[in-house]
Amino acid sequence: MIHTSTEHEVLAVVFQVGDVSSRKPTLNVLLWQRAMDPQRGRWALPGGRLSDDEDLTSSVRRQLAEKVDLREIAHLEQLAVFSEPRRVPGVRTIATTFLGLVPSPARPELPPDTRWHPVN
Q1: Residue 14 phi/psi, 5° resolution?
Q2: How would you class 56 by CB atoms within 10 Å of its CB: exposed for 0-12, middle for 13-18, buried for 19 or more?
Q3: Taking the model in full, what pTM does it have?
């Protein structure tokens, strides 16, 4: 099937080192629970659609602020682009991913559907 339209989304892989004062600090990744079907309740990277009037970096910062109330990011850089035509069902969606780091002393107040998950 030929795609007649393409959407663009940004996704953020955000890390923080937790329990810095302990002998064994842990690396954590920020995930949020999807609110809509077909993947409702599944943990995913935070992100969303790129608006017509914004660049990629502005979009990922907006998504993190609006969706998971994360505003304090020490480092943010573009990581990779995923453009496989059938990456997701429905309209072709290109995803640009970003790597973000939250400073260890920061303790952002996260909404109930968002949590830090240990990276094993």
Answers
A1: -110, 125
A2: middle
A3: 0.84
